C-alpha cells in the first residue's frame, strides 16, 4: 500500500512540476533540501568531518557548514528535477544545459568505438544520462535494484529511460554491459562509490577506496574511458564538462595501468570538487575503509608527557597500515580559559559546541590548528590536555586515548585510558592499569642511542674513561609542587657518585630535565665539567637531549634517578639496568604519602628499583656493582600494544 501511495504521489507531483517554470521548480527543490539540512544532524556532522579531512585549514568551521547546507540544497534541486524529467527535451537542453567537449565523445560513439562514460556523485548526476540521450548517444547505466518499493523503483527507472537510455541492474549486469559495448552503445558509471574491494588511491591527500569495475571493464573491452561531470551554474542552468579520455592499457603492465587510471580519475574528480565543494555528495563516510589513520598528539610542553604519548603512537603505527601524525602543543589564553574547557568537557553532553569553546579557551594559533585538524585518534598525557582531548575527539568522532587520571572529567568519556596504579582510579572497561609512565625503551633503541652518544662532541672531548668497563648514569629531575631539588642535595649526590667512580674505576654520565633549576645546573657544571670521572654532562636548558637518556642507559650498568620524576624513573626501569632512586627534600611535611612515594613503593615491591635515602646512595651503587644481582625490567609496551589493538 505504501509503495502504491508513493507511486501516486510521485506521478501527481511530477505532473504538477512539469507545468511550472524550471526556475520555480528548482527554487522549490533547493528550499526543500535546505530545510532537510536542519533535520539531518548526523549527515551534517559526517559531511563537515569529510570536509575537514579533505580541506583542513582551507575551510573554517562556518564555511564547512555553509558547504554542507549547499549540498542539501543541491540534493533537493536534483530531486525535483528528476521528477520533472518527462518535460526535459531538446529545447530544454538547448536553453539550460551546455556541453563542453561534446565532439570528442560523439566522435567515438559515431565511430562505433566502445565508450564508458564515467562520472561521480557531482551536481545533478541523474541528468547525465538524459543529456547523453538528447545529444544522440543514449547510454546503458548501471544501477542497484531497490526491492523494498518495487513499483516506485520501476516508475523512476521509466523516467530515466524516457529518452532512450537503458538501466542494467547489478547481478549479471556485467554481461549486459559487455554486450552493449560490443554493439557500440556507450555505457555509464558513477565511479566514486566506496568499495571494500577497491583500490586505495590518493584523494584529497588521503588514501580512499575506488571501485575497479569501470576500469576493469574498459581494460577487458578496449573501451574508451571518458570522465564527465555536470556543474549546476545557477537554478536550472547546468554545464557538462567532458574530459579527455583516460588510457587503460592491456598487456604485462595491465595492473599498473588500472591503478594509474583510477588515480587519474580521482585527481580529475578532486579538481572538479575543488571548483565548487557544495556540488559533491559529502554526506556518506567516504574514507570509512581507508587504510590510513590520522593521529593527533596533544602536548602540554612537558617532554616526559610527550614521550608517553609518542609511545602510544608508536604502538598505533605497528597496528595500522599507514599513520599520519601531528603534534600540537596546547596553550590556553589564561587560567580561566583552562577552567572553561574543563567545565565544558565535563558538563556539556557529546562535546556540543566544543569548537567554539576551544576558540574561546585557547590561544588563537593553537585553536586554529585544532579546529582545522582532522583526526581518527587523539592522544594526550597530563591534566592540562585532557579537556582539549575530550572536545577535539567529540568534534572529530575520533577515538580518544588519555594517559594519567583525567579527573575532574569522568574516565568513561574516553575510549582508552592508561592510568598508573598509584593514581587510585576505579576499574572501568576502558581503563588499562600500568606501573608508572608508558615507555618503550628497547635494546635496539638503547644500542642506537648509545652509538650516537659516543659520537657526541662533549663525550669525545671529556671521556677520559669512555672505554671503561663500568658506567653510572645520573638522571636529575627538578622542582615540583611537592619536592625541591636543593643545591645541598645535589652537592651530596654528586660527591657520592664521584667517590664510587673513583673507587671502582668507573665513569659517570649526568643529564638534567627542563625542570632543573639554574642553581642546580651551576653546581653540576662546577663539580663535573672538569672531573676526570665524568665522561658526559648534558643540561636540558642548553643541550639537545634527543635520545640522551636512552644512550646513557645503554652505556651504563647502573642508573641513579631522582624520585620526584615518575616518567624519568619509569624510563630508567624499562631499560633493564639496576636502578637506584633517591628522593629530593620535600617542601612541606606531608599528611600522607605523595603520589611519587606511592609509585616508588609499588615499584620497589615489584623489584624494579632500589629506594635509598641520600646518605646511602654511594653504598647502594657499590653493592650493585659488587654483587650484580639480577635486574627486573619494566615492560609496559606489551600492555600498550594489546590495548591499542583492541582500540583500533
Describe what is shown at a glance.
With 648 residues, the protein is α/β, with parallel strands linked by helices.
How would you characterize this protein structure?
It is a single chain. The protein is an alpha/beta fold. The chain folds into three domains: 2-279, no CATH class; 292-434, Rossmann fold, CATH 3.40.50; 443-627, Rossmann fold (3-Layer(aba) Sandwich), CATH 3.40.50. The chain has 25 helices and 21 strands. The strands form four sheets. A seven-stranded mixed β-sheet has the order 1-9-8-2-5-3-4, sandwiched between helices. Strands 11-10-12-13-14-15 form a six-stranded parallel β-sheet, with helices on both faces. Strands 18-17-16-19-20-21 form a six-stranded parallel β-sheet, sandwiched between helices. Strand 10, helix 12 (303-319) and strand 11 (322-329) form a beta-alpha-beta unit. Helix 13 runs antiparallel to helix 14 and helix 19 runs parallel beside helix 24. It is elongated and about 100 Å long. It starts with a helix and ends with a helix.
Amino acid at each position: 500500500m505504501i509503495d502504491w501511495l508513493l507511486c501516486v504521489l510521485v506521478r501527481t507531483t511530477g505532473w504538477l512540476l512539469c507545468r511550472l517554470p524550471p526556475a520555480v521548480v528548482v527554487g522549490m527543490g533547493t528550499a526543500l533540501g535546505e530545510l532537510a539540512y536542519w533535520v539531518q544532524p548526523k549527515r551534517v556532522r559526517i559531511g563537515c568531518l569529510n570536509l575537514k579531512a579533505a580541506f583542513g585549514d582551507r575551510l573554517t568551521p562556518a564555511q564547512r557548514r555553509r558547504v554542507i547546507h549547499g549540498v542539501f540544497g543541491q540534493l533537493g534541486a536534483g530531486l525535483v528535477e528528476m521528477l520533472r524529467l518527462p518535460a526535459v527535451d531538446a529545447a530544454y537542453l538547448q536553453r539550460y544545459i551546455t556541453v563542453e567537449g561534446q565532439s570528442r565523445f560523439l566522435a567515438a560513439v559515431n565511430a562505433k568505438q566502445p565508450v564508458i562514460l564515467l562520472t561521480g556523485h557531482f551536481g545533478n548526476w541523474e541528468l547525465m544520462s538524459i543529456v547523453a540521450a538528447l545529444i544522440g548517444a543514449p547510454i546503458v547505466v548501471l544501477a542497484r535494484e531497490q526491492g523494498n518499493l518495487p513499483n516506485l523503483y520501476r516508475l523512476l527507472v521509466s523516467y530515466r529511460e524516457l529518452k532512450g537510455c537503458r538501466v542494467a541492474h547489478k547481478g549479471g549486469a556485467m554481461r549486459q554491459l559487455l554486450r552493449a559495448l560490443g554493439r557500440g552503445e556507450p555505457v555509464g558509471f558513477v565511479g566514486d562509490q566506496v568499495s571494500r574491494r577497491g583500490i586505495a588511491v590518493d584523494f584529497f591527500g588521503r588514501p580512499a577506496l575506488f571501485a575497479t569495475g569501470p576500469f576493469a571493464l574498459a581494460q577487458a573491452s578496449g573501451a574508451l574511458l571518458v570522465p564527465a561531470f555536470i556543474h549546476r551554474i545557477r537554478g536550472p542552468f547546468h554545464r557538462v564538462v567532458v574530459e579527455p579520455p583516460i588510457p587503460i592499457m592491456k598487456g604485462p603492465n595491465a595492473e599498473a595501468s588500472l591503478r594509474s587510471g583510477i588515480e587519474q580519475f580521482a585527481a580529475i574528480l578532486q579538481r572538479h570538487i575543488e571548483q565548487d565543494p557544495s556540488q559533491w555528495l559529502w554526506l556518506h563516510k567516504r574514507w570509512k575503509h581507508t587504510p590510513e589513520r590520522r593521529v593527533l598528539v596533544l602536548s602540554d610542553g612537558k617532554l616526559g608527557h610527550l614521550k608517553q604519548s609518542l609511545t602510544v603512537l608508536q604502538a598505533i603505527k605497528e597496528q595500522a597500515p599507514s599513520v599520519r601524525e601531528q603534534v600540537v602543543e596546547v596553550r590556553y589564553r589564561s587560567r580561566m580559559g583552562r577552567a572553561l574547557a574543563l567545565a565544558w568537557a565535563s558538563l556539556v553532553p557529546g562535546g556540543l559546541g566544543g569548537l567554539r569553546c576551544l576558540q574561546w579557551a585557547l590561544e588563537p594559533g593553537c585553536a586554529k590548528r585544532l579546529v582545522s585538524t582532522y583526526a581518527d585518534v587523539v592522544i594526550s598525557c597530563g591534566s592540562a590536555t585532557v579537556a582539549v582531548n575530550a572536545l577535539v575527539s567529540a568534534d572529530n568522532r575520533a577515538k580518544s586515548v588519555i594517559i594519567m587520571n583525567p579527573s575532574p572529567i569522568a574516565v568513561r568519556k574516553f575510549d582508552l585510558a592508561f592510568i598508573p596504579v598509584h593514581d587510585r582510579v576505579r576499574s572501568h572497561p576502558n581503563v588499562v592499569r600500568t606501573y608508572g609512565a608508558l615507555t618503550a625503551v628497547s635494546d635496539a633503541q638503547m644500542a642506537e642511542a648509545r652509538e650516537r652518544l659516543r659520537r657526541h662532541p662533549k663525550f669525545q672531548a671529556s671521556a677520559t674513561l669512555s672505554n671503561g668497563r663500568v658506567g653510572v648514569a645520573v638522571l636529575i629531575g627538578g622542582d615540583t609542587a611537592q619536592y625541591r631539588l636543593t643545591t645541598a642535595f645535589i652537592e651530596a649526590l654528586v660527591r657520592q657518585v664521584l667517590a664510587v667512580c673513583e673507587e671502582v674505576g668507573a665513569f659517570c654520565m649526568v643529564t638534567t630535565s627542563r625542570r632543573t633549576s639554574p642553581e642546580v645546573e651551576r653546581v653540576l657544571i662546577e663539580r663535573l665539567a672538569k672531573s676526570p670521572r665524568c665522561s658526559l654532562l648534558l643540561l636540558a636548558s642548553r643541550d639537545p637531549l634527543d635520545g640522551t637518556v636512552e644512550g646513557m642507559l645503554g652505556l651504563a650498568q647502573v642508573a641513579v634517578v631522582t624520585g620526584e620524576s615518575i616518567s624519568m624513573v619509569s624510563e630508567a626501569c624499562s631499560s633493564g639496568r639496576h636502578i637506584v632512586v633517591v628522593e629530593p627534600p620535600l617542601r612541606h611535611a606531608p599528611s600522607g604519602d605523595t603520589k611519587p612515594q606511592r609509585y616508588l613503593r609499588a615499584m620497589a615491591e615489584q623489584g624494579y628499583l632500589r629506594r635509598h635515602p641520600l646518605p646511602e646512595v654511594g653504598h647502594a651503587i657499590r653493592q650493585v656493582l659488587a654483587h650484580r644481582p639480577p635486574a627486573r625490567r619494566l615492560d609496559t609496551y606489551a600492555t600498550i600494544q594489546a590495548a591499542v589493538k583492541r582500540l583500533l
